[in-house]
Design a protein that fits this description.
The chain is of the alpha/beta class. It is 38% helix and 26% strand. It is built from nine helices and nine strands. It has a six-stranded mixed beta sheet, sandwiched between helices.
Length: 252
């Protein structure tokens, strides 16, 4: 279980007059995950989704609050936790001069997997993500959607328990997006837990079991898609979000 308690991240920004002010990109976020579910982290650009997920993945340290994964903290169990998770963002960079096969071999070795297990796992992943015919192509020659699938393949090699996916389908064509969404649902059915950040409300409504909706760094609602729609008397999550923030303003 991933448990998040009163998580905060403070940054400093500078205006055109060089005046510095502090602000919380994430401000008091709390929630827990359950086994075998997809939790959607929903909100507009700038809501704090990426900052939140980077703290959950151990890439960024929080200013306040706690993150525990299976009752372990990053300060005491960093390596053990990272063997349990996979993190992918929409702008993850890969080595352009190597092939998907070479990347998976390298990542498997870094995770301490033996050669036989890496080979078996690689075969399974390439088939799952429709990458078999591209396994020996240079990553730099692949399309955006193909590269994103290779990035996801990299995350899968060690068979993680938790997936932390930050806008993994942003900018992808419909086929690549659907391959990734089908994969996410399949992993959920295997008992894996997926944290899935997106600003595509319709996409989240179709695949998420529960929603953590955030705006300006704060949680504004949690629940199943149906619960949130019922609370806001709306028929879709997009309208529910606007109902929760009081509509669109110039500040938004």
């Amino acid at each position: 279980m991933i448990k998040v308690i009163n998580l905060k991240k403070e940054f400093t920004r500078e205006d055109k007059n060089k005046k510095k002010t502090k602000f919380f990109a994430v401000n008091g976020v709390s929630f827990e995950t359950r086994e075998g579910e997809i939790i959607g982290i929903l909100g507009p650009n700038g809501a704090g989704k990426s900052t939140l997920l980077r703290m959950l993945a151990g890439i960024m340290e929080q200013t306040e609050g706690t993150v525990t994964i299976d009752d372990m903290s990053y300060k005491k169990n960093d390596i053990e936790i990272k063997r349990k998770i996979a993190f992918l963002s929409g702008n993850t960079k890969l080595y352009n001069r190597i092939t998907p096969h070479e990347l998976l071999q390298m990542c498997g070795t870094l995770y301490g997997m033996d050669e036989k297990t890496i080979k078996e796992r690689e075969k399974e992943i390439l088939e799952l993500l429709n990458l078999v015919e591209l396994q020996n192509a240079k990553i730099g020659n692949l399309s955006t959607g193909q590269t994103q699938r290779v990035g996801l393949a990299r995350c899968l090699i060690h068979d993680p328990k938790y997936y932390i996916l930050d806008e993994a389908t942003t900018g992808l064509d419909i086929i690549s997006s659907q391959i990734i969404l089908d994969f996410i649902k399949e992993e959920r059915n295997k008992g894996k837990t997926i944290l899935y950040s997106t600003h595509y409300m319709e996409e989240a409504e179709n695949i998420c079991d529960r929603i953590v909706m955030i705006n300006k760094g704060e949680v504004i609602e949690t629940g199943t898609p149906d619960e949130i729609k019922s609370k806001t008397n709306t028929t879709n999550l997009r309208d529910a979000f606007f109902a929760l923030i009081g509509g669109v303003t110039n500040e938004d």
